Amino acid sequence: MSDVQTLSASLVDEVRSAADADTLEAIRVRALGKSGTITALLKTLGAMSPEERQEKGPAIQGLRAAVADAIAERKAALDQAALDARLASERLDMSLPVGAGAQGSVHPVSQVMDELAEIFADLGFAVATGPEIEDDWHNFTALNIPETHPARAMHDTFYFPDVDAEGRRMLLRTHTSPVQIRTMKDAEPPIRIIAPGRVYRSDSDATHTPMFHQIEGLVIDRGIHLGHLRWTLETFLKAFFERDDIVLRLRPSYFPFTEPSVEVDVGYSIEKGRRVIGGDPTGPNGGWMEVLGSGMVHPKVIAAAGLDPAEWQGFAFGTGVDRLAMLKYGMDDLRAFFDGDLRWLRHYGFRALDVPTLSGGVGA
Ligand code: PHE
After folding, report:
1. Alpha-carbon distance 150 to 142, whole Å?
2. Together in a domain, 334 and 221
3. What is the CA radius of gyration of the chain?
4. Residue 183 falls inside a structural domain
5. What per-residue confidence (pLDDT) applies to 99?
6. How far apart are CA 176 and CA 152, in angstroms?
7. Would 99 be classed as within a structural domain?
8. Is the CA virtual torsion 259, 145, 210, 356 positive or negative?
């Protein structure tokens, strides 16, 4: 065997047994690279006499081709093996039942917001939103809470250091009521909206967190009166707590943006040793619990939002979503809502596929 044939046989052997892409590449560089053995042989052709070149040329060219082919073949085989290994390890079982092994759960606050949206959608209410970073005109002034009003101090407001282009102080909204103003400015009455969302107050203990959730309701139309408010809240609370024996008590109260203002209590009673919403509040250990603030929208608020209070009237209400969740699903510490503790989330969370519907039961 000539030297060329020996070299060819040993290189092809080496290529075929290369265990991985890096080994194969090292062999290629050693044989076919700039200073590789085969490259060096090819260079000798130039210095040969025509006869000698005719004799040795084909053997050297054949060597180059044989090694290059062997490398291409081995590379294809290694690539295929790598792909097979990946396909085997990344296998997905497409026949798994839906939800098997599901990890996440829907937070009770999201669940209750979905329940409320479902209940109010059935009554013809759309969902409205507004910014969490508000200005003091929308959060206070337009809601009939002027600069000097004590309610400004009562709200424990988080202010930003800057003012906006119109010189308004910027703040984190302290309630969802500014969405009333934004909605009345943007939409033509009649208006029926709810506005769920985050609100902020500088306050923190077992029943207060600096961030919490409210839901606002607003109805603006002609000839709206307290009777409409009462019916709407009663219908909502019965649907939410999923019982018909919910009793409401409306107490005169005060909010700057409603006149008259009413605070709404629901009756609770004791069933099987547990306090539940509903039943007879005058029975043993029964009583009343405050759940909502509400009232007829103040004419000044309607005017501030650019509508004529002689033509348009309405009612508004606001309540804490977190508190509604606690009352319905039995949690007792508000702070746990926002701790991100997996055990709490697994215990109180809802399955993602159980979307609340009125037909299926809103709290499914
Ligand atoms: N914004 C009031 C609060 O945060 C609740 C409320 C809303 C009262 C609408 C009346 C009407 O306490």
Report:
1. 15
2. yes
3. 38
4. yes
5. 65
6. 15
7. no
8. positive
Same domain membership, residue 137 and residue 10: no
144 lines ligand 1 (CB under 6 A): no
| Token pair recorded at residue 295 | 């009232």
Is 255's C-beta closer than 6 angstroms to any atom of ligand 1? yes
Residue 135 host element (H or E): strand 133-135
- Which are the contacts of 170, defined by CB distance < 8 A and separation ≥ 6? 133, 134, 135, 136, 159, 160, 162, 163, 164
User: Per-residue b/e over 323-362, b at no fewer than 16 CB within 10 Å?
Assistant: bbbbbbeebeebebbeeeeeebbeebbbeeebebeeeeeb
Binding site membership of 295 for ligand 1 (Cβ less than 6 Å): yes
Report CA torsion sign: 111, 158, 291, 286. positive
Atom of ligand 1 nearest to the CA of 293: 8
Q: Is the pLDDT of residue 321 over 90?
A: yes
Distance 227 CA to ligand 1 centre (A): 18
158 in a domain, yes or no? yes
CATH number where 243 lies: 3.30.930.10
CA triplet 183, 188, 190: central angle to 5 degrees?
A: 90
pTM: 0.73
Residue with tokens 């004529």: 308
Given a contact cutoff of 8 angstroms between Cβ atoms, the answer to whether 294 and 278 are in contact is no
What pLDDT digit, counting tens, does each position of 227-258 carry?
A: 999 999 999 999 999 999 999 999 999 999 99
- The predicted-structure confidence for 15-40, as pLDDT tens digits, reads as follows 999 999 999 999 999 999 999 999 99
* Residue recorded with tokens 């209400």: 317
176 occurs within a structural domain: yes
Going by pLDDT thresholds of 50, 70 and 90, the confidence category of residue 226 is very high
- Nearest by Cα to 4 from 75, 84, 66, 59: 59
What is the domain range of residue 81? 2-89
